Amino acid sequence: MQDERSEWLARPPQDGLAEKLRIGAWILTAAILVLVGLMRRIKIPLPESVDLSFLPPFHAAVNALAAVVLVIAFIAVIKGRIVLHRRMIMTAMFLSVLFLLSYVAYHFTSNEVKFGDANLDGIVDQAELSKVGGMRTVYLILLASHIILAAVSLPFILFTFIAGWTNRFSAHKRLAKWVFPIWLYVAVTGPVCYLMLRPYYP
Asked: Global pTM?
């Protein structure tokens, strides 16, 4: 496996291509953030026969699968299996794009589901009220960290991918050391937030 790593490290960097792709990454990031910002303000009505209620669990499944793939990619690169690492990262990128497109489409066409204790009037028992309120706090903290880190990490995930794709391995390694755990955290907390919110979906 050391030969496989050495073979990749011997490849010359493609600095010119990397610079062009970085500009594209910034443009793509800006476009995605604009779409995410608009999707909560603009609602596109769908025919009554169209039901997108299957999408939230689909999003959670895609995120969970992305987390598994990222872990495999990490183990692969530690063991020097660069070809497998690249394949897993490509798969993780594909899953992230699939999630993003589906997520944006869902929120442009469906009302946002909020944690069930947005209105606590129906809860009489004080212990139950406290429990639900505590869970809501945990949920909101997880959701906020998930959203913020997803937005902040997006361009740097792209930069890390570009660095690897263009054989700029020192830059790739330097970025991946902190980008990978953030990407993994975002992928894991997505399904966790869904599972916490699941009882409140219609």
From this structure: 0.86
